[in-house]
Each structure stands twice: as C-alpha cells, then as structure tokens.
C-alpha cells in the first residue's frame, strides 16, 4: 500500500480511482497503478488547468485516514490504492527574471497586415522594428510564428516584413494567437520557455495572446517599439496592465542583445549591424 493512503481496498486492473480536489472543486478520476507525483500533477492540470495560475507554486497533499486530515505527500509516494489528493497553492511571490536564450525562445509576429497601415499609430516604425526582429531571429535560428487576422478582408502581412523561414503563417479570426495550429507548432519545438511577442493591436490581440501564454506557463516578452494600437491610450493601459501580471515589456535592442549575450558571439557583428540600422526613435517609447 502507498504510505499514508488510508488503507482503502486496492483497485483492480491497471488504474486506480483517485478523488482530485482543488479549491472548492472535487472530481473523481483515475491514474495508472504506480503513478507518482509527476503524474498526479499532470492529472491536476488536465482537470483544473483553466483555474490554476501557472506562476504560483503548489504542494500536493494526501488525505490520511489515520490523522483524519490532509498531509503533505510522502516522499516517493506511489498510488496503488484508492485515495484522495488535493493541490494547495503556496502564497509565494515568484519573480520573473526574463532571461532569454535562442534555444528556448520563439518569436510571435501578430497581425502586421496591410489594412492596418492607415489606422495604427507609428505603423511604419513598428514594421521597421518588426522586420529587424525577424532578421535577428533568422540569424540566431529562432523559430517564428506569424498570424494574420481575417486576411481575406484585412490583407496579408505587409510586404516590408520578410517571412522567409517562418515556422508557421496562419490565418485567424480569434483575437489571441493561441490557436490549435500554434499550440501544435510549439509542441514540436523542444524546451520552449520564452515567447517574444510583437505586432498589433496592443490592447486586443497582443494582450489576449500574452495572457493566454502566461496561463500556459510560458514567459512572455512584449517588444514595446514593435507593438502599437489605433489609440495610444489603449496601448499605454494595455502595457501597464500586462506588466503588472509579470509580463516583461521591453525593447527590440534589449531583446536582440540579450539573445547574443556576449560580444564574442559568432553572430554579434550581424546583430549589431541590425541595431545600427534601426528606425529613428518615434513617439512610441514615450507613451509606455
């Protein structure tokens, strides 16, 4: 019997019934016989993932009949008989450090389309910076995922932005970029930890994408000089809101130099040349 599991009768077959409790919820389910901590966590995420704040830490506890209360899951615990477990959030503030490495980073380019050109403030500037970011991604071997909002009506990505080598270019009607095709593409890239996000509009598609991504446990960097809206007020308040949630609001130069990290990096000179060829400073960064 598993330690402290309360002495219930063993379940037959290859799975064991388990009652999964989180907050005010309790859901009967099952796990394979001999499942341990990692499988229990995966099961909790599959059952309650939409309610769990991935930025917080948790402890799994087991209901122990001998104590008539929950205890911390014993070390090396394996499920081999019916039991009741719960996930308890720890009240710990976790600081997002925002470290970037090319091997764990993906760039998201959101809806940089022709029909937005006359409406979006500083659109020419964010196109120029967006193109520089995509050039940097190609130099550093970073995958790029691109979406286009209803391209039939709003046109394709602007011609100035070169999508050569993009891992995925996908149309959408949903505001968030987190589509099934995008999630499938991310699943094909091992070790993704950080998303660098830019495009339009800050307070709609960028904001909704960023919130969905952090809800999935990914770290999000929004490139302020490559992100805009029709209204600078909408843009400003969106960036402020997102920064309060732990999303990193930064600049294209900071992103590119963080990714090379060292003057001795073999691509440093090429990245430096991209930065030197940057667009003139616009009013974007004075509005953050």
UniProtKB/TrEMBL annotation:
Q: Which Gene3D superfamilies match?
A: Isochorismatase-like
Q: Please indicate which superkingdom the organism of origin belongs to.
A: Eukaryota
Under InterPro entries, the record lists: Isochorismatase-like_dom, Isochorismatase-like_sf, Isochorismatase_domain
| Domain Isochorismatase-like as annotated: residue spans | 105-253
Q: Mind telling me which Pfam families this protein's record contains?
A: Isochorismatase
Q: Which family does it belong to?
A: Belongs to the isochorismatase family.
- Name listed for the protein in its UniProt record: Isochorismatase domain-containing protein 1
Give the species this sequence originates from.
Struthidea cinerea
